[in-house]
Write a structure and sequence with these properties.
8-stranded parallel barrel; alpha/beta
């Protein structure tokens, strides 16, 4: 049977002939936020970086959460996720970025990092949340790694080319109403020409956390706030003290909040912000290295 979505209101199992994978999905939507045992409390932010910006053990001592970036470019082995989970301290939280084969089309330059090139004849089967066997298999593998790692949130970042066309909106609805979201939250980072009303409406309908850089635009929906700090002028931007004061004010709300820095000096900026919040932040004792974006 080819990978496809069936009618609404049923729980289904899809067999993928190429891999033997089975995708169990249903139409029930996820509801209250559960997260980890160390979920941020009301008005308190969890601070971290997008990718390990230093050695793992040093990172665990410095921050309470990380967003794994490697999963966007090339999924690690499931055993690697299990090993990372086992090596982290109790209560440490993992989030991750969904594999690009789900969200991005093969024309994206990020596909160059794939070990195995996409066959030319199959290029129109990948990305944009298409209801195809290829996207389904990419999701099955993403979910398997997420389960091994024990993630609380999966971030689906879309390229600017994922515009609000009828086809794209239909794909988005189909994907998020079919996948099994037991145990984790879905976070969506649209980019491009999406209007605020459309973003808010889809996030409400599909129970999605709206991901933003709060120094650029407000979050429009979610039982929690999930912020990704990309830098006001790009990846090399260093956040000023005034920027961090603004961010602190944004975080002063009655919602659990995550602040993940994703700029060149992400570790330094995250440590500064964590200190500003009054959280424990040990000095960096190792050389900061550029994390995988």
């Amino acid at each position: 049977m080819k990978g496809r979505f069936d009618s609404v209101g049923r729980t289904n199992v899809i067999e993928l002939p190429a891999s033997g994978s089975r995708w169990v999905y249903n139409t029930s939507m996820r509801r209250p936020y559960r997260g980890n045992t160390t979920d941020p409390g009301a008005g308190q932010a969890k601070v971290g970086t997008c990718g390990f910006a230093m050695g793992r053990q040093e990172y665990y001592k410095t921050f309470p959460v990380i967003e794994i970036q490697q999963t966007f470019y090339k999924l690690p082995r499931v055993s690697t996720g299990a090993r990372w989970r086992a090596g982290a301290p109790t209560g440490f939280e993992f989030t991750m970025k969904a594999w690009q084969l789900i969200t991005h089309e093969p024309s994206s330059p990020t596909y160059r990092r794939l070990t195995k090139p996409i066959p030319p004849a199959s290029k129109d089967h990948y990305g944009a949340f298409r209801p195809t066997e290829e996207v389904i298999e990419a999701w099955v593998r993403t979910q398997a790694f997420a389960t091994a790692l024990g993630v609380s949130i999966i971030v689906f970042q879309c390229p600017p080319s994922f515009t609000p066309t009828p086809e794209h909106i239909a794909n988005l609805r189909t994907f998020f109403t079919r996948i099994d979201r037991t145990g984790w939250q879905a976070a969506w980072e649209p980019r491009g020409i999406w209007t605020a009303d459309l973003i808010q409406g889809l996030c409400r309908e599909l129970d999605l956390i709206h991901v933003v850089d709060p120094l650029k635009e407000p979050s429009l929906h979610g039982a929690i706030r999930y912020y990704r700090l990309h830098g006001l002028t790009g990846y090399r931007y260093v956040h000023t003290d005034q920027d961090l004061e603004r961010l602190k004010a944004v975080c002063a709300q009655d919602l659990p909040t995550y602040c993940l820095f994703n700029n060149l000096l992400m570790a330094e900026d995250a440590v500064r912000f964590q200190a500003l919040l009054g959280e424990k932040a040990e000095p960096l004792r190792t050389r900061i290295v550029k994390a995988v974006r």
